[in-house]
Design goal:
heterodimer, A: mainly beta, 0% helix, B: mainly beta, 56% strand
Chain lengths: 116, 114
């Protein structure tokens, strides 16, 4: 059963417009949510994160919104640029027990295509 | 230096072979991870090492054997793999401890099992 879901396999947006990528989750134990960007033949690159106690985090052109009651988060990119074309993964982390490291649970990804 | 390196980039092996994947980071991170990513699927966590000790094994078959010889290196030893083990194997590292620790990923090793 997928605990992190990205229901749009792809999204096409015109350059300069806003890109909105969505993510839903089912596990209430997740305490942090992260967005990663991945180009072909490269590993995922961290973009932005949000704690489960916040509802918004902004970093330059990227803003992540969290609606905890709906178990939904979204990544807004504005304005969209051609270099933003990539696969975007939503990921979540469960609360760490005993101070150790915990891995991430990823969604299937959304392929964002920015059209000139 | 915020780089995680992985070798080899590509690997083809037979089902009777023994091979190893290597991962290295020099960021002083004390948590290291192996993920497996099959085509059109998300990365899936396999193992987590924290302070050079295995802390999480996500029920991975014993034909995959991780090793963390020191705080900079992480290996994944492969033996008697199956064709369905063909995938992209991603290594990541992060600081250890409480709070969100951003994971830095390597480019991956693309493995093909014949």
């Amino acid at each position: 059963d997928q605990q992190v879901k990205q229901n749009s396999p792809s999204l096409s947006v015109q350059e300069g417009r806003i890109s909105i990528l969505n993510c839903d989750y089912t596990n209430s134990m997740f305490d942090y949510f992260l967005w990663y960007k991945k180009y072909p033949a490269e590993g995922p690159t961290f973009l932005i994160s949000i704690s489960s106690i916040k509802d918004k985090n902004e970093d330059g052109r990227f803003t992540v919104f969290l609606n905890k009651s709906a178990k939904h988060l979204s990544l807004h990119i504005v304005p969209s640029q051609p270099g933003d074309s990539a696969v975007y993964f939503c990921a979540a982390r469960k609360m760490a027990s005993g101070g150790g490291a915990d891995g991430l649970t990823f969604g299937k990804g959304t392929h964002l295509i920015i059209q000139p | 230096d915020t780089e995680v390196t992985q070798t080899p980039k590509h690997l083809v092996m037979g089902m009777t072979n023994k091979k190893s994947l290597k991962c290295e980071q020099h960021m002083g991170h004390r948590a290291m991870y192996w993920y497996k990513q099959k085509a059109k699927k998300p990365p899936e966590l396999m193992f987590v090492y924290s302070y050079e000790k295995l802390s999480i094994n996500e029920s991975v078959p014993s034909r995959f054997s991780p090793e963390c010889p020191n705080s900079s290196l992480l290996n994944l030893h492969l033996h008697a793999l199956q064709p369905e083990d063909s995938a992209l194997y991603l290594c990541a590292s992060s600081q250890a401890g409480q709070g969100l620790r951003r994971q830095y990923f390597g480019p991956g090793t693309r493995l093909l099992v014949l």
